[in-house]
Amino acid sequence: MPYRLIIIFALLFSKNIYSQNNSVSSPEKQSNSLTSEKKKLNTILSNERILIDGELNEGIWQKAEVATNFIMFEPDNGIPIAQNKKSDIKIVYDNEAIYIGAMLNDDQPNKIMREITQRDDDGSSDFFGVSVNGYNDGQQEFRFYVTAAGVQLDCNSNSQTGEDFSWDAIWESKTKITDKGWIVEMRIPYSALRFSKENIQTWGINFLRQIRRDRQLYTWTHIDNKKGSFEQQAGELHGIENIKTPTRLFLFPYASVYVSSDKKNGTKTELKGGLDIKYGINDAFTLDAILVPDFGQTALDNQILNLGPFEQQFNENRPFFTEGTDLFNKGDLFYSRRIGGKPSLRRGRLNQEKETNEIIDEYPSKVNLLNALKISGRTKGGLGIGFLNAITQKTEATLLDTLSQTKRKAVIEPLSNFSILTLDQRFNKNSSVSLVNTNVTRDGEFRDANVTALVWDLNTKKNTFNLSGDFKYSNVNEYKNLDDRKGYNTSLNFAETSGKIRFNVGAKYVSKEYDNNDLGINFITNYSSVFGNMNYRMLKPSENLNAFRLNWNVYTEYENITGKLQGLNLNTNYHFTTKKNNGYGFGINSKPVNTYDFYSPGVEGRYVTIPKNYGAWVYYSSNYNKKFAVDINPYFTEYFEGDRMEYGISFGPRYRLNNKISFRLNYDFGKQNSDRGLVDYQGDDIIYAQRDVNSSTLALSTKYALNNKMTININSRYYWSYVQNDKFLSLQTDGTLIDSNYTNALNQDFNTWNIDCSYSWWIAPGSQLNMLYRNTSSNGLSEIQYIDKNVSHNFNTLFGDKLQHTFSISLRYFLDYNRAKSWI
Known about the structure:
Largest sheet: 24 strands, antiparallel, barrel
Number of helices: 7
Oligomer: single chain
Radius of gyration: 29 Å
Strand content: over 45%
């Protein structure tokens, strides 16, 4: 009965929303004449020096052609911009860069929102942006944004992966608020762009403007949201001729000092220095290299108590591995945390190989990165080439003989080479076929691995339908005398990608021996899946809503050998935004039959039954434009197995005191009642526990921006999770669990704490000074008989002998070879 009510409600609700959106407003009809042709803008050569000061007072600006008549992208797609918000844009160029001048009218300049944030964060601010495609092929764009507070954002973007803000370029900008609105002036050097060597250039171009208080986004050329590709609908920039681009060679020398202290090791000081290089091989390809890398100030990993059969996946925080890596992410084969990650010979395997009287005295938790380089770019013919290579250091553990008290070294990671090569051919302005290869070669008898993938993403000319898929083949030369493993992974998807109603259907097959975990990450193999989804989206605002989307999804997964159903998910979810820009959503999930988990038992051929279940979630996100805003997201899942259930809530208030100071709190709580989880093995018997799991995370972020070049940030996180076993169960061969007399497993308790206080100053374009104080603590995973559930007690245990302090100062300076040459 509940399922019938859910289906009826979903159909009725979607019908009502659809009926509100059938009519076409007269402004849309009026805008059709503005959007039928591709817009063109002509630029002119400048022979005078242009000072980036937000004034636009050089004579050349008066001669340049104007791009105007912006059109709304969202929420009311296709509506011309109001006259009192008129936007006039001009472009000029010389042999080093293009220059953009934007006059953005606003009849209420005192209401222009301009929160000061860190780079690549627009916060609650108006912004202006330019999107450049040097090949005018409708494929990849480089986008440069600047907020009304003068904060820079930049990214590269394509229709397959969207915007990637991890990419950073070096360019200049200046903004100025006037009594008529605000002015933007930009200088984007050719080194930040990619284009052909032709004497006469034609580039794809578009301009974007956000009016934050109204949550409206405008573009110069109309971007029709019924079509699937933003990049293909750009205008054209003409007039760049016979430019002589300078040598693109940039040096980034750095120096840093670290002072660390803890009760066990005392205080120690470490000095580091090194050099990063960026070299333009030609106008299309760039080489990046890091020599003597220093990642000491990267953000910490948010560790959790991991009770599942798979490793915890962490975000990449090292800039070299996040910037401009879109080519390397083709085929989803690259997990950069493998480079300089944990040793390949894990502690458990080393325990098996040590001598009888030996114990592990020292075991390094990570491998040092020696150096890395990457080459990436794209030819005029649309061929993208990406090559990345990294070398890691030989790493040894120390073994102690408890009888003789002698020590010896054991190699847990030899000198290793990691590489990835991608060839990505784009065609028809919206499609691509890619060949990707990853390779890991380790010195000596250690494991080597090679994975090759063919990936395709094909779209019809009008971007109405998409056919995508891949075929991946892995070949692993196992450790020492173990057998080699060869496997494959293939998928195929078909989707409609335009209009109000869209769908996707697909299938996947992964063989048992497929393994890409040496340079990628993959948790499960030996399965087949079939899946599909359908969604309805509102393309124009209705009387009550700015945006609405309704999704239906189904996913099924089968173990290849037995054919048993190991995954099933049926869900529907709704998301909508009101006229006051408050966001709401809710969803219903269901697994109406039992499924089978082949992974948590850890023994080949064994599985545990997961009972059928259902769940729901809701969220509310208030308008971030207001000084106080809040996000709330409660959820629950109910199992058809005794009193087993999961529930939790995320609560995130935020407060913006002014344009310089803001606070953000996040609290996450989750509880699993009568959960079932693996705890031990007794001979052939696999022991599970019926247990309660409680997890809480409290994080507080504070930002104080002195100006758009200097910020102070304080970020803290406290995480606490504990497991209390109620009783123990024995896994049967049919996947069921029965009572066991096992009593050895203890309860588990895990606490972590960290706080980062940082000062960042962009002393010049591309040059940054960072000061960081960090303290961290963790009680590790402790197994105890009784858990003290007093929050203050568990928090206080972290501030004892285990507390570690680190203070560091790092200076990274940008040197342009052309300017350095003139100095010399």
